[in-house]
Design a protein that fits this description.
alpha+beta, disordered N terminus, 11 strands
């Protein structure tokens, strides 16, 4: 019986955590991600700037393997996207508008062709840890004022971590 349980644990590993956390400070951003988050390449040109922001690279580690959580997707320019209304609200509670150490910095970009507003976001936990230094930009919220059901939050995979046993589907 014990051997069967061990074999089952090896062949069907349970994740050490079900949620998504900030890779820098470890704050939980989403309590559960399975089936609620996808990998995708964003075609909005405003999000291309996300690769220019300084981002920590998975300082927090998956408890299962004591190794950095490996994304279960392979496309180099892919981001993680969340579209569920409930998950969006949860993320908005854990994130805040990004502002690069300037009182005059803009934190939103209007895209007239798409009819969308892009707002860059940072982890609230990181700003609480060290209020004197700016937190990393880890996500972008894309709002469609005329079609709110299309709203999305795109996250940098290098800025978040999750258990390596959780598979993230690709939308491409």
């Amino acid at each position: 019986m014990v051997c069967l349980q061990l074999l089952q644990q090896v062949t069907d590993p349970k994740p050490c955590s079900l949620g998504l956390k900030c890779a820098k400070c470890g704050q939980e951003l989403l309590p559960a991600i399975k089936g609620l988050i996808q990998s995708a390449v964003c075609k909005l040109k405003e999000l291309a700037i996300m690769s220019e922001f300084t981002v920590c690279h998975n300082e927090r580690r998956c408890q299962c393997q004591r190794a950095a959580s490996k994304p279960s997707f392979s496309h180099g320019s892919a981001l993680l996207v969340v579209q569920s209304i409930t998950q969006l609200q949860t993320l908005k509670n854990a994130l805040q508008p990004y502002c690069a150490n300037s009182f005059t910095a803009y934190n939103a970009i209007w895209n007239p062709e798409e009819g969308s507003v892009v707002r860059f976001l940072q982890c609230k936990g990181c700003t609480w840890l060290d209020p004197t230094s700016p937190a990393d930009c880890i996500a972008a919220e894309v709002c469609y004022p005329l079609h709110p059901s299309q709203d999305q939050i795109w996250l940098s995979p290098a800025a978040v971590c999750y258990c390596s046993h959780i598979h993230v589907d690709s939308r491409d």
